[in-house]
Amino acid sequence: MEIKKGIGVSPGVAISTAFVLDAEEVPIPQRHVEPGKLKNEVTRLRKATAASKAEIVELRDRMAAEIGQETAAIFDFHLRMLEDKVLLRNLGRTIRDKHVTAEHAVAAVFRDYAKTFLAMPQFMAERVKDVNDIQKRLLRNLIGQSRQVLNHLRRDVVLLAHDLTPSQTANLDRRHILGLATDAGGRTSHTAIVAHALGIPAVVGLKDVTVSVQPNDTVIIDGNRGVVIVNPDEATLDEHRQYVQRLVQVERQLIELRDLPAVTRDGHEVTLLGNIEFPAEAATVIEKGGAGIGLYRTEYLYLSSEVEPTEQQHYDAYCEAIRLADGRPIVIRTLDLGADKYTQDRALVPERNPFLGLRSIRYCLRHLDAFKTQIRAVLRAATTGPVSMLFPLITNVMELRQAKMIVRDVAEDLEEEQAEFIPDVPIGMMIEVPSAALMCDAFAKEVDFFSIGTNDLVQYTLAVDRGNEMVAPLFTVAHPAVLRLIKDVIRAGQRHNVSVSLCGEVGADPEYTLLLLGLGLRIFSVAPPAIPEIKQIIRSITIEQATQCARKVMTFDSDKEILSYMRDRLRHLVPDLQR
Amino acid sequence: MQLVDTASRFDSHITVSNGEAEMDAKSIMSVMQLAATQGTVLRLKASGEDAQDALEAMAALIRSGFGE
Question: Which chain A residues touch B29 with a CB distance below 8 Å?
Fold first, then answer.
């Protein structure tokens, strides 16, 4: 039994068998192979080799026809490699002697060749590129055989990976994944977001859990305590099963809250909304007692397929979400991608610093076709229910005005086409960079609402990469600088009659509810599982208490003091809150 | 690659050596490791029914400068 400590980013406890994803996005059905299955691996390798050769022959012939024999000659070279009996014998021997999968044999053998060639004089070293090319092709043909596994899990598992990227999680078979654990990642990493969306426990920042676990090991993921236990002994298993029981009971109590309003003890109404990634989650938000969708992240439409989503696909997704929200308002955020495969694959030159690069609204303003497609779908879908549009990562007023102008252009186009649409959908912007927060007064004159994105706001204000486990402890909303910005934005909203919501992960953190209310926040948009708990807190306190808390907090100068104080107040004012 | 292509035409077991390592002449991955540049002295060995023909063909190839 091994106990590993990480950061719990999504609550709950899951006990199941491990499914491991390695660092190169290759799902390894098994790293080690039983002697009985070795022949199967050799067969897989043979098939992948044959498929790779066929691909190369086709490529060569096409190149020869289109460009010329000399260029096509490189493929002859690739072909020779795949016909090399010494290489093939090597691969087969590795599978049989080391008892590993075909993928591992390929990786190991090719790595050795690459090392040998790299140590040789210049003209041979260039051949390493070709060797790597062949390796990739072989792996692709091998993985093509097993990629289906991730999409069609046949039994319940907990997923362990080095890190989970949006494109990986977009294609997961959600029905069978009971928990997530990653080596990398911090509190607001993508894994946390997905886990919240699925309502499953997750622990990140474990550093080396993927090497400590074998596929099919029994694993306990405790998102509350931030612990992962590999191959627990009987006593530990029992203890956790009972824990799960108790959690189920608490869950039941919170369900009862669903139909009660989010009103403080002194009668102040608070709007509790939900954040969603997929249309289906809109139903979950309503089920948990949310009053609407405060943030519909549309990125998954782009990440779950190889090609860009069509207008129809956008439209269908939005209408579905609207339908499930059943008359409640939805805020649709335009494409907020960057620093990830989608934009990097399409970049002419890889960005050295993607987080400060062409992402989100900047990307959209450069790729007007894609941007307009999305906007068209939003304006058209708005005929079926109350929809608002939200622009991410706005850093200056010109950007915002440009985006609004494009919305007007799209409206004109739709008008000419005599399509059914709503031309004056409310438009808001995310406040997630310091420049936006500092100039919130200027921005307030140009939008209908603000949405504070604390995840990115903290990142840019404190200069901390939220996914870097080395500096994850520095990432906190409780930093006085961040709190001051949040306060200023809320005040600006009040002054200009612009509604302000908060959609970052911190909204779901019970320790911050009092403070945020005390700073004047009245609209929270959180991950659906958190709605009942936040509602319970709201119903247990008075705004007077919240304001006092906020006033006191703003006098502290360290996040540790602030967190300690908030924890204390929460325990005091909401003693029966189950954590 | 032409070295490997030529060697592969024959049934015999053929090796090529650069004085330090001896490699299977039909294996491109192995031959690449010899790092044979202009001026390297190569020793060819063949054993089998068509060994003589194989050696002649390989020697001719090398003497012709690989057609370059």
Answer: 81, 84, 86-87, 113
Tell me if residue A308 falls in helix, strand or coil.
coil
Q: What is the pLDDT along chain B (68 residues), one digit of tens a residue?
A: 788 889 999 999 999 998 888 999 999 999 888 877 777 788 899 999 999 999 999 888 888 876 55
Q: Is A81 on the interface with B (CB under 8 A)?
A: yes
Average pLDDT of the residues in A103-109 = 87
Q: Which of B26, B27, B32 has its CB closest to that of A127?
A: B32
Q: Which of A190, A196, A314, A479 is catalytic?
A: A190
Spatial CA neighbour of A538 closest among A568, A516, A556, A519: A516
Architecture category of domain A35-146 in CATH: Orthogonal Bundle (1.10)
Beta strand pairing status for A202-204 and A177-182? parallel
* Contacts of the segment A369-374: beta carbons below 8 A, 24+ positions apart: A370/A308, A370/A335, A371/A334, A371/A335, A371/A406, A372/A406, A372/A409, A372/A410, A372/A413, A373/A308, A373/A309, A373/A310, A373/A311, A373/A314, A374/A298, A374/A314, A374/A334, A374/A335
Strands (E), A162-311: 177-182, 202-204, 218-222, 227-230, 271-276, 293-297
| ipTM of predicted complex | 0.88
Average pLDDT over residues A244-270: 86
Residue A78 among the catalytic residues:
no
- Residue A572 annotated among the catalytic residues of the structure: no
pLDDT tens by residue, A271-308? 999 999 989 899 989 989 999 999 999 988 887 776 88
Per-residue model confidence as pLDDT tens digits over A429-440? 999 999 999 999
Q: Partners of A220 in the beta sheet? A: A15, A229
Is the pLDDT assigned to residue A382 strictly greater than 60? yes
So what's the pLDDT on residue A164? 77
Contacts of B13 in chain A (CB under 8 A): none
3-state secondary structure of A81: helix
CATH superfamily of A267-543: Phosphoenolpyruvate-binding domains (3.20.20.60)
Angle between helices A531-540 and A510-518 (to 10 degrees): 50
Spell out which chain B residues touch chain A, with contact meaning CB-CB distance below 8 angstroms: 1, 4-5, 24, 26-30, 32-33, 35, 37
What is the gyration radius of the CA atoms in chain B, in angstroms?
Answer: 11
CB-based contact B28 A80, cutoff 8 Å: yes
CATH architecture under which domain B2-67 falls = 2-Layer Sandwich (3.30)
- Chain B interface disruption, residue of A70, A85, A128, A132, most B CBs within 10 A: A85
A113 touching B, CB under 8 A? yes
Are the beta carbons of A116 and B26 separated by less than 8 Å? no
Cβ within 8 Å, pair B30-A116: no
Q: Which residue has the higher pLDDT, A326 or A337?
A: A326
Q: Which CATH architecture has domain A2-27+151-250?
A: 3-Layer(bba) Sandwich (3.50)
Residue A148: pLDDT band (50, 70, 90) is very low
Answer whether residue A171 shows pLDDT above 90. Answer: no
pTM, rounded to two decimals: 0.60
* Domain spans in chain A, listed from the N-terminal domain onward: 2-27+151-250, 35-146, 267-543
